[in-house]
Every structure is written in structure tokens, then in C-alpha cells.
Amino acid sequence: MPYWQAIPCPLWCEREHHEEEFTEHRIHRPADNLVSVVLTANDPVRLENKDGSVFFEPAILRVDLSQHIREAAPRVLLGKEHSTEYSLTPGEAVELGHAPVKTGQLAGTS
Questions:
Q1: Is the pTM for the entire model greater than 0.85?
Q2: Residues in a beta bridge with 77
Q3: Distance between CA atoms of 75 and 71, rounded to whole angstroms?
Q4: Inter-residue contact 109 to 74 (CB < 8 Å)
Q5: Lowest mean pLDDT: which of 4-8, 59-63, 68-72, 84-88?
Q6: For residue 79, how far is the Cα from the chain centroid?
Q7: φ, ψ at 24 (rounded to 5°)
Q8: How far apart are CA 65 and CA 50, in angstroms?
Q9: C-alpha to C-alpha distance for 104 and 92, rounded to whole angstroms
Q10: pLDDT given at position 109
Q11: Which long-range contacts (C-beta less than 8 Å, at least 24 apart) are formed by 69-77?
């Protein structure tokens, strides 16, 4: 455990921490791509290569987990790949998780 880490990592943290990490990089993270969903009803995302050429990737909704060593609780990160990201408390994430189910159930009752 690095000198700056006062307590062990949360059970879900799969990141290897190092002594030389700067403060802003001292973050607990699970394995890559915790949850990713390709959004097939959305337009593809237009991106540019370093040489200026254009390519497209599917729109992807990503859900991730992150906790800086100075934070008391983890944050659930929700966002589109290559776009805006929202930081939610665990309680907000649970509340948001119920919303699509309720909406889907409502849509299925027609």
C-alpha cells in the first residue's frame, strides 16, 4: 500500500496504486468498462484522427464507479462516450436506475 493511502482500497477497486501518483490521480476504480451500452437508436459520434481524417463510432452510454482517496463515498459516473459525464451519489444512481424501468413499464401498458 502506498505511503499516502491511509486505508485499504474498497473491495471493488481493481486499480494498482503507486507511491509516485500525484494527488489528482489517487482514485479507486473498478475494472475497465463496468457497464457500456451501445445506443443503436442514436446517431454515430463523429471523431477526428490526429491527421485530421474523420471517423465515426457508435454512441455508447457508459456507467462507471470512481472514488478519490479524499472522498468519503464513491461516485457513480454516467455519460456518453466522447461526451458529457455526470457524477451521481450512490443514492442518486439507484433512483435514476428505477426511472427507465418505470418508463418502460408505462410504455408497455398501451
A1: no
A2: 64, 87
A3: 9
A4: no
A5: 84-88
A6: 7
A7: -70, -15
A8: 29
A9: 19
A10: 67
A11: 69/4, 69/5, 69/6, 69/26, 69/27, 69/28, 70/26, 74/10, 74/12, 74/28
Contacts of 1 (CB under 8 A, 6+ apart): 8, 17
For 17, the grid coordinates are 496504486
Q: How far apart are CA 42 and CA 60, in angstroms?
A: 9
- pLDDT of 54 > 90? The answer is yes
> Which of the residue ranges 6-15, 17-26, 40-49, 50-59 has the most confident prediction, judged by mean pLDDT?
50-59
Sort 41 into a burial class: Cβ within 10 Å, 0-12 / 13-18 / 19+: exposed
CA distance 86 to 68: 16
> Which parts of the chain fold into alpha helices (H)?
90-107
Nearest CA among 27, 31, 32 for reference residue 5: 27
pLDDT in tens, 3-24: 888 888 888 888 888 888 888 8
Looking at this protein, which amino acid is placed at residue 29?
R
84 to 33, 60, 61, 94, 110: CA distances (angstroms): 17, 12, 10, 20, 33
